[in-house]
C-alpha cells in the first residue's frame, strides 16, 4: 500500500524545469516552473484544466464554471464580460488561461499588464480540444494525467470520424437562442463538429462568430434539421413548429441538445458531437417519409 501511494504521488508531482508551449493564438507561453496557481477565464477552460489534472491548481474562475462538480466551489473572479482585477491580483496567479472572444480583448490586455503568463484557449477544430488538455498539462506539470486524457479524447474523435465518414450531407441550422434569434457561424468549433457528422451549417459563411439572423433567412435556407440548445418551451426549437413548409419541421427533425456539451469547447464537446451525429443519422433515416 505504501509503495502504491509513493508511485501515485510521483505520477502527480510537478515536473521540474522551464517549459514553453504555444497557445491557440500562436503565442509562446513560457513558465520557469509548473503553474501551481491558475486562473480560468472561461467555463470551457475550467473543464479543460480539470481534465488535464489541474483542478486543484485553479484559484479563481469566471461565472458558469460549473463542471465538474468541484468547479462550483472555486472562488469567482467575475464573468466573461467583466472580471474583478483586484481579486485577480490578490490571488497571485502564476498562469492565466483566457478565451479570445468578442468582449475579451480589453480584459486580456489588462491581465497581461500584471506580468503573469497568459495562455489563450480557443480551439477552432475538435482536435484542438485534446491539444489544449496536453499543453495545459505541460504548463502545470501534470502530464501523467493530461497525456492519457488527451489520448482518449483523440481516440474518441477518430472513432467518430471513421463511423460517419462519407455520410450524406444534412443541411442544418444551429440555434443558440431565439430572442434574438442567433446562431454560430463557420468560425465556431460547432461547425467542425457538424462537418464530422456529415452536417452542413447553413450559416457557415457568415463572418461574425455568433451572428443574429432572421426567421426569414432560415426559412429561405430551408434546413433539413434544426438543433436548439435551450429548453423547447424557452427559446427552443418549438419556434419552428408553425412553419409547416420548413423541411426540418415537416420531417420532425427539430432536435434539442445540451448547450453545455456543444457551446463550450471543452472535453465534453466530444460526447456532444456524438449526440449531434446520432441526431443527423436519424434525420437521414426520415428522408423516406
Task: Please give a structural write-up.
The structure is a single chain. This protein is an alpha/beta fold and 289 residues long. The chain is built from eleven helices and eleven strands. Strands 7, 8, 9, 10 and 11 form a five-stranded mixed beta sheet that branches. A four-stranded parallel beta sheet has the order 4-3-5-6, with helices on both faces. A two-stranded antiparallel ribbon has the order 1-2. The model is unreliable at 1-15 (pLDDT under 50).
Distinctive features:
single chain, 289 residues, alpha/beta, 4-stranded parallel sheet, 11 strands, 38% helix, globular, disordered N terminus
Reconstruct the topology from this structure:
Layout: H1 2-12, E1 19-22, E2 28-31, E3 38-40, H2 43-51, E4 58-61, H3 85-90, E5 95-98, H4 105-112, E6 118-120, H5 128-140, H6 143-164, E7 170-178, E8 181-183, H7 189-196, E9 199-201, H8 215-221, E10 225-228, H9 247-250, E11 254-256, H10 259-262, H11 269-285
Parallel strand pairs: 3-4, 3-5, 5-6, 7-9, 7-10, 10-11
Antiparallel strand pairs: 1-2, 7-8
What does the largest sheet look like? 5 strands, mixed
SSE arrangement, N to C: HEEEHEHEHEHHEEHEHEHEHH
The overall average pLDDT, rounded, is 91
Oligomeric organization of the protein chains:
single chain
Helix content: 25-40%
Structural class: alpha/beta
Beta-strand percentage range:
15-25%
Cα-atom radius of gyration: 21 Å
- Please give the alpha-carbon distance between the first and last residues: 62 Å
Number of helices: 11
Q: Describe the global form.
A: globular
Amino acid at each position: 500500500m505504501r509503495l502504491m501511494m509513493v508511485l501515485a504521488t510521483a505520477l502527480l508531482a510537478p515536473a521540474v524545469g522551464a517549459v514553453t508551449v504555444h497557445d491557440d493564438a500562436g503565442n509562446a507561453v513560457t513558465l520557469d516552473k509548473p503553474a501551481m496557481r491558475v486562473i480560468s477565464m472561461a467555463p470551457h477552460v475550467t473543464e479543460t484544466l480539470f481534465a488535464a489534472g489541474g483542478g486543484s491548481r485553479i484559484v479563481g474562475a469566471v461565472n458558469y464554471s460549473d463542471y465538474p462538480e468541484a468547479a462550483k466551489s472555486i472562488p469567482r473572479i467575475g464573468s466573461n464580460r467583466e472580471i474583478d482585477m483586484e481579486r485577480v491580483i490578490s490571488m497571485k496567479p502564476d498562469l492565466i488561461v483566457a478565451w479570445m472572444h468578442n468582449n475579451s480583448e480589453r480584459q486580456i490586455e489588462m491581465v497581461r499588464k500584471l506580468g503573469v503568463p497568459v495562455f489563450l484557449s480557443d480551439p477552432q477544430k475538435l482536435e484542438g480540444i485534446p491539444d489544449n488538455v496536453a499543453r495545459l498539462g505541460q504548463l502545470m506539470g501534470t502530464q501523467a494525467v493530461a497525456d492519457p486524457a488527451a489520448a482518449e479524447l483523440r481516440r474518441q474523435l477518430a472513432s467518430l470520424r471513421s463511423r460517419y465518414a462519407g455520410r450524406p450531407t444534412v443541411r442544418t441550422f444551429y440555434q443558440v437562442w431565439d430572442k434574438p434569434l442567433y446562431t454560430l457561424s463557420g468560425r465556431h468549433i460547432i461547425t467542425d463538429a457538424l462537418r464530422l457528422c456529415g452536417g452542413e451549417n447553413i450559416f457557415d459563411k457568415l463572418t461574425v462568430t455568433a451572428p443574429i439572423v432572421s426567421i426569414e433567412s432560415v426559412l429561405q435556407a430551408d434546413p433539413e434539421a434544426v438543433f436548439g440548445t435551450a429548453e423547447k418551451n424557452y427559446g427552443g426549437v418549438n419556434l419552428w413548429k408553425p412553419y409547416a413548409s420548413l423541411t426540418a419541421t415537416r420531417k420532425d427533425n427539430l432536435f434539442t441538445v445540451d448547450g453545455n456539451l456543444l457551446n463550450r469547447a471543452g472535453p465534453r464537446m466530444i460526447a456532444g458531437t456524438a449526440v449531434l451525429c446520432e441526431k443527423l443519422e436519424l434525420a437521414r433515416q426520415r428522408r423516406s417519409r
